[in-house]
Amino acid sequence: MSTRTLKIAAVLTAAAFVSFGASAAELKVGLSTEVDSLDPHYDYEIPDVALHLHLYDTLILNDEKQRLIPGLATSWKPIDDTTWEFTLRKGVKFHDGTDFDANDVAFSVQRVNTLKALTSFKMFVSKVTEVVVVDPYTVRFKTKDVYPMLPGDISQVMIASDSIGKATTADFNSGKAAIGTGPFKLVEFITGNKVVVAANEKYWGGKPVWDKVTFQMITNTGSRVAALLAGDLDVIEKVPTADVERLKADPKLTLAQSSSNRVIYLHVDTDRDQTPNARDKKGAVLSKNPLKDLRVRQAISKAINREAIKDRVMEGLSIPAGQLLPPGFFGISPNLKPDAYDPDAAKRLLAEAGYPDGFSLTVHGPNNRYINDGKIIQAVAQMLARIGIDTQVETMPANVYWPRANNLEFSLMLVGWGSGGNAAANALKALLATWDKEKGMGSTNRGRYSNLEFDKLLDQALKTVDSKKQEELLIKATELGIKDLGVIPLHYQVNTWATSSRHTFVARTDGMTLITGSAPAK
User: Fold this and answer.
1) Residue (of 445, 382, 323, 399) closest to 32 by Cα position
2) How many of the other CB atoms lie within 10 Å of CB of 440?
3) Angle formed by the axes of helices 423-431 and 452-463, to 10°?
4) Which value, in Å, is the radius of gyration of the alpha carbons in the chain?
C-alpha cells in the first residue's frame, strides 16, 4: 500500500471553516426548506445537514470549496491496508459539559448502522467493519478491503454523545438528545417552522460571532424576499432567479453567489415491469413499463431543451449538465456532454421502442426544495408533450414529496443531489449503485436502477489506492451509468444568497447555508 498516495497532510486549521471574533447580537436567517428533524443521522438532505452542522461537528470538516480540513480529528492516516487511524482533538466538550472522546465516535458510527432512517447515512460507513477505540483520543476504522476514500466518507458523519444511549429521533426533536459539540446550542425547535440557537461560548474553535441565530423556514420565495426587504431577515438562501438583478441593485443588500455541485436530474423507474404513472392515451396503466427501454429514456433526454430551461426558467443561473458533477471535480468524465435538444430524434426513438403515438406520463417533484423546481417540471412536461408523451405534473411540498418518493410511488421524478466528501464516488454510490439497504448502496436510488457491470466498476474504484487508476474507474462507471440513463441530468444549480449589507456571507459550492461563514461587515 502506498502511504505516499493516501497520507493526508492535515495542515489546514478549523479557522478556515469558521469565522469567529467579537460576538454580535442576533442574526435572522430565512431558509427555503422545512427541516423536520434535529437527528443528525436521520435524513441525508443538504438543508438538514447544514442546519445540523451548527449543533454538531464531524471528525473532518469541509470548507466552502469542500476541501477536507481538521474538525474533531486533528489528523488521520492509514496505518495498514485496511486500517485508518484518527487522532482526536483534546479538550472538546459537548453542550452538556461532558468530554468528547473516542467512545463518542464509535457510538455515532454504530448508531448510523442501526438507526431506521428516512435517508440512510449508511453509505458513508458501509465499508467500516469495526471501530477500535485505542485510547480516549485515538480511534481506528477497520475496513474489509483497502478503502482510500474513508476520510471523505467519515467527513459526512456527525458525532453525537454516547451519553444519549438509545435516544430516538423524537428525543432529538424535543431537544432532550440534541447534544453536540458544535458552535451553537439548541434553544428552540418548532418542527417545520423555526430553529433558534445560541452561541456555544466554550466552543473548541472559539466563541461564535453571533450570540443568537434564528433560522426561519419560509418555503415561499416571495415571502422570503419580502421579509429580507422589510428587514425581518438578515440572510436568505435560494434567491429566486427572477429577483437576482433587482436585489443586486439594492445598496442595502449584498449577494453571494457560487456555482454548485448540485445536479438537478430526473430519476427514472427502470426496475418495475409495470410502473404506476405510465398510461395509454385512454388512461389505462400500461401493461409494460416503457421507461425500462433505453430508447424511451433517450427520447425523454433528447426532448429536453436544457439551454431553454437555463435561459427562460433559470434566468441564466444554471449550467446544462451531462453527468452528475460539473467540471473541476475528481472522477468526472471529459467525454460526457449534455444531451443535445433533438425532438425529431426523440420521436424516432419512441417509434422504435413501439410507441409511435407516444403514451401518457405523470411527472412528480417538489415545489419548494430546489431553485424554480416547480417551473422546471412544468417546462419538462411541455417539452415531452411535443414528442407525443402527454405529460401531467404533480408537485408538492418537500416534506410530503420525500416519503412518497422513498416509497417508490413515482415513475419519473425531479430530484437534486449535492455531493459531499468523495463527491464523484458518493454520487455514484447514492444514485446509481444497485440498492442494498444493509450496505448503504443506492441509498437514494429511487428509480432502483441496477447494472451489475456498473456496480463492479464502482466497487473496484472504491478499493483502488492509485489515484490515477481510481479516477479512470470512476470515469468508466460514470460513463456507463449516464449513457444508460439510470438518471437524466438536467443542470447544475448556481446558488445565490442575499444578505443585509451590514453582514458578510461566504457562498459554498455545496449550497449549505452555514452561519459560521457569516460576520458583521467591517
Assistant:
1) 399
2) 21
3) 150
4) 23
- The mean per-residue pLDDT over the stretch 316-330 comes to 91
Are residue 477 and residue 439 in the same domain, yes or no? yes
Record the cell numbers describing residue 210, joined without a space. 453571533
Domain count, the chain: 2
Is residue 384 a part of any domain in this protein? Answer: yes
40: DSSP letter: T
CATH number of the domain that 449 lies in? Answer: 3.10.105.10
The string of pLDDT tens digits covering residues 261-280 is 899 999 999 999 999 999 99
Boundaries of domain holding 97: 3-234+502-520
Instruction: Kindly state whether residues 220 and 276 are assigned to the same domain.
Output: no
The mean pLDDT of 467-471, rounded to a whole number, is: 92
Q: Which of 158-162, 184-188, 397-401 has the weakest average pLDDT?
A: 397-401
Q: Tell me, what CATH number does 33's domain have?
A: 3.40.190.10
Residues 272 and 304 in one domain: yes
C-alpha cell at 11: 495542515
Which residues contact residue 216 at a Cβ distance below 8 angstroms, ignoring those fewer than 6 apart? 28, 29, 30, 31, 193, 194, 227, 233
Which pLDDT belongs to residue 465?
A: 86
Cα–Cα nearest to 502, from 228, 239, 243? 228
- 396-415 average pLDDT score: 95
Residue 393, C-beta contacts closer than 8 angstroms, at least 6 positions apart: 362, 363, 365, 377, 378, 381
Q: Are 291 and 205 part of one and the same domain?
A: no
Q: Over the chain, what is the mean pLDDT?
A: 91
Whether 280 and 142 share a structural domain: no
Residue 200 has pLDDT above 90, yes or no: yes
pLDDT of residue 452 exceeding 70, the answer is: yes
Whether residues 462 and 514 fall in one domain: no
183 secondary structure, DSSP code: S
